[in-house]
């Protein structure tokens, strides 16, 4: 069965520092992987996705993630944090296509950015 | 471009009351779904629909009903509210099968429900 584990429910970085949010998945088949961001009192927005092809995926707002099959990981990074990056981030994996492809979400990581 | 619209934004119910959370999308998406978000639990799928007239259960369907009479609307009904249903509810839609290539989920802004 598919599952997603996000390491660390809260991450705090200083403005300008590297952002690293960790996501590990388990899947019996090659997965589709996603990162979503949720700003306060809003719904989730797609940040980036990996389906096939290049393993380094670039998303919006300077974020990127690398699919590492050998490590079953899809960590999210940004070289330099900005105050506006403070939000909650969710990693998600798609179920196998035969089951209507619903997404399984991790429990989320709340990112705080200190001035 | 409204996207996914949820109403109401906030609701307080007493135990045993019923209500319907509304969800509408104007993107002609086939796939629609309802999630609940609870602290430390992430998002859990309640019900989903792959097209008008077709619905199915997700991970946590008990206590909730849905219907899909049109492509645009996907209401979520609580028949007899319980305190355990206190949560934030999100409706989402996508072109095709959620998670498939080129089918990212589009989310509404949520309904915050409190059951006392």
Topology (SSEs and partners):
The complex is a heterodimer of chains A (115) and B (116).
Chain A: E1 3-7, E2 10-14, E3 19-26, E4 33-38, E5 44-50, E6 56-58, E7 64-68, E8 73-78, E9 87-94, E10 103-105, E11 109-114
Parallel strand pairs in A: 2-11
Antiparallel strand pairs in A: 1-3, 3-8, 4-5, 4-9, 6-7, 7-8, 9-10, 9-11
Chain B: E1 4-7, E2 10-13, E3 19-25, E4 31-38, E5 42-51, E6 54-57, E7 64-66, E8 76-78, E9 87-94, E10 106-107, E11 111-115
Parallel strand pairs in B: 2-11
Antiparallel strand pairs in B: 1-3, 3-8, 4-5, 4-9, 5-6, 7-8, 9-10, 9-11
What structural keywords apply?
heterodimer, A: 115 residues, mainly beta, 6-stranded mixed beta sheet, 5-stranded antiparallel beta sheet, 0% helix, 54% strand, globular, B: 116 residues, 4-stranded antiparallel beta sheet
In DSSP terms (H or I, runs of 4 or more residues), the helix count of chain B works out at 0
User: Please, how many helices of chain A?
Assistant: 0
Could you give the distance between the termini of chain A? 41 Å
Q: How do the helices and strands follow one another from N- to C-terminus of chain A? A: EEEEEEEEEEE
The residue-averaged pLDDT of chain A reads: 89
| Quaternary structure type | heterodimer
**Helix proportion range of chain A:** under 10%
Please give the radius of gyration of chain B in angstroms. Answer: 13 Å
Q: How many individual β-strands of chain B?
A: 11
Low-confidence stretches of chain A: none
Order of helices and strands of chain B: EEEEEEEEEEE
Commentary on this structure:
The complex is a heterodimer of chains A (115) and B (116). Chain A has 115 residues and is mainly β. Chain A contains no helices and eleven strands. In chain A, strands 2, 4, 5, 9, 10 and 11 form a six-stranded mixed beta sheet that branches. A five-stranded antiparallel beta sheet of chain A has the order 1-3-8-7-6, with no helix packed on it. The model of chain A has no long low-confidence stretch (mean pLDDT 89). Chain B has 116 residues and is mostly beta strands. In chain B, a hairpin with a 2-residue loop joins strand 5 and strand 6. The model of chain B has no long low-confidence stretch (mean pLDDT 92). In chain B, the strands form two sheets. In chain B, strands 2, 4, 5, 6, 9, 10 and 11 form a seven-stranded mixed beta sheet that branches. The chains are: A mainly beta (115), B mainly beta (116).
């Amino acid at each position: 069965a598919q599952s997603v584990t996000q390491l660390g429910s809260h991450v705090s970085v200083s403005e300008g520092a590297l952002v690293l949010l960790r996501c590990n998945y388990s899947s019996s088949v090659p997965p589709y992987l996603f990162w979503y961001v949720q700003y306060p009192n809003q719904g989730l927005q797609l940040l980036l996705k990996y389906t096939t092809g290049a393993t380094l995926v670039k998303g919006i707002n300077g974020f990127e993630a690398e699919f590492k099959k050998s490590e079953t990981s899809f960590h999210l990074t940004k070289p330099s944090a900005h105050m506006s990056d403070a939000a909650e981030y969710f990693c998600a994996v798609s179920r196998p296509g035969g089951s209507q492809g619903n997404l399984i979400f991790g429990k989320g990581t709340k990112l705080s950015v200190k001035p | 471009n409204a996207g996914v619209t949820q109403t109401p934004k906030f609701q307080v119910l007493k135990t045993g009351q019923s209500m319907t959370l509304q969800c509408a999308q104007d993107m002609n998406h086939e796939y629609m779904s309802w999630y609940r978000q609870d602290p430390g639990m992430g998002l859990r799928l309640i019900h989903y629909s792959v097209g008008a007239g077709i619905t199915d259960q997700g991970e946590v369907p008990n206590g909730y009903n849905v219907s899909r009479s049109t492509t645009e609307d996907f209401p979520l009904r609580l028949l007899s509210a319980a305190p355990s249903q206190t949560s934030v509810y999100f409706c989402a839609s996508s072109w095709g099968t959620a998670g498939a290539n080129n089918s990212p989920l589009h989310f509404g802004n949520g309904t915050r429900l409190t059951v006392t």
